[in-house]
Each structure stands twice: as C-alpha cells, then as structure tokens.
Amino acid sequence: MSISPIVSGPPLVISGPSGVGKSTLLKRLFAKYPSSFGFSVSHTTRGPRPGEANGVAYNFVSAEEFAGLLEANAFIEHTQFAGNSYGTSFAAVETVQKVGRICVLDVEMSGVRAIKGTSLGAKFVFVRPPSIADLERRLRGRGTETEETIAKRLGAAQAEMDYADTGVHDVIIVNGESEDKAFELRILQMCMTATPSLTSGISFCSDLDAFVRATWPQVAAAPAGSLPATDKKAKKWSCTIL
C-alpha cells in the first residue's frame, strides 16, 4: 500500500523515550494551531490507561486484530514493547492529510528508521531528558510502571539517545523542568524551520515567517524575533527547555 501525495507539507515525526514529555509538547502544539496539525492515531494491543479514549490516544485493538492489519500491510511502521504491539497505519496518516492538516506522528526508534525509508519527506524531532536519572524519576512519578517495565524503558531510552547522537534527526530538544511551557511552542515552531542542506547538514531559515508560509501556509506566522541565531554549519541543533 502506498501513501497519497502530501498536500499539507511534510509530516512532523516526534520521537523520544517514554516519559520524556512528548505528549505535553504535542498537546501544546495542537492547542496553538488546532486547525493546522492533526495527530496520527496509532494502533496498540495494550490496554488504555486512565483518561485514554479509544481513537484519541490510540486505536486500542486485540492481538488478533493487530495481526490482521499487519498481514494486510496496513502499517507504515510497527514495533513491540513489553509484550504489546504498536503501529502507525497508512490510513491514519491519510486521514490527517485529506483534511489539509500537517500530520504529526509519535513513534519509537524503529518507527523513525522505517519512516526514513519511505517517501514521506518528514521532519524528525527527537525529545530527550536531561539525564537517565531524570527520566527514571519521571517514570516512577507516573505510578503506573512496574520495576521490570521501568528497567526496560530505561534500557530502551539509552538506545534511543545513542541513536539520536548519530545525527539522524533534524532537531534535538532537551526537555527540562520549567513550569512555564510556553517556550516549548516556540521551540516546535523553530523545529519546523530546519531544512536539509546538501553541504552542511542542517541549515536554518533566517526568515521564519517566510519559511512557514512557504512550507506550511496554514500555520500562523511566529512572533518576530523568535528564531535565535544559529550556526549554519551545525549538523544538528540542541535546545534546552529550562
């Protein structure tokens, strides 16, 4: 199965360890641009957590249903963790694109690898914790993880951060602890300005408004001066949310 032509610009692929704060970043992005972005709702065989609605957080399916979708080549990418299956379907991405919105995907490391092998032309953003110790504290603070699951998640997190260190993502965000998360919105706006350069890795548009209008015309222009000076020779950009 192939994906339909993108009419709303390149998808935004967010990845990072479980518990790092990706959901918070995405909620604020959607709140800022409710008519511009759409979330690609993944399928999973795990049960819903408190407050998770079917078709919103995930499409919750049985193992048999997931296997049937896999057999039908319905997934762009899929993975397993802690005995549960997760997958992003072609249909989920197309649903967002058909209404003219920028598709946002939240995937694991294997998903990043799979999507890089497609023609989606996505922008890749990696969200990492300040440290493994900080991530462990966040996971324990959830109150939903067993010791075994925490150990598995921390091991997976280290592997993801090692992978990110190879420069495969367009932008790396170090997500800190500030209660004032408004800055996160500006960071995600800046993430969108990263464009590949044939000669110098990642380059950054000096005119944010012009870039946003040209690439995602339905996204409101960012406030003047929100794009910081950057080294255009940098292979990747790391911004700490303090």
Automatic annotation (TrEMBL):
Keywords: ATP-binding, Kinase, Nucleotide-binding, Transferase. This is Guanylate kinase. It comes from the Eukaryota. Gene3D superfamilies: Guanylate Kinase phosphate binding domain, P-loop containing nucleotide triphosphate hydrolases. SUPFAM superfamilies: P-loop containing nucleoside triphosphate hydrolases. GO terms for cellular component: cytosol. Residues 9-190 form the Guanylate kinase-like domain. It comes from Chytriomyces confervae. Its EC number is 2.7.4.8. One of its GO terms (molecular function) is ATP binding. Belongs to the guanylate kinase family. Pfam families: Guanylate_kin. CDD domains: GMPK. SMART domains: GuKc (SM00072).
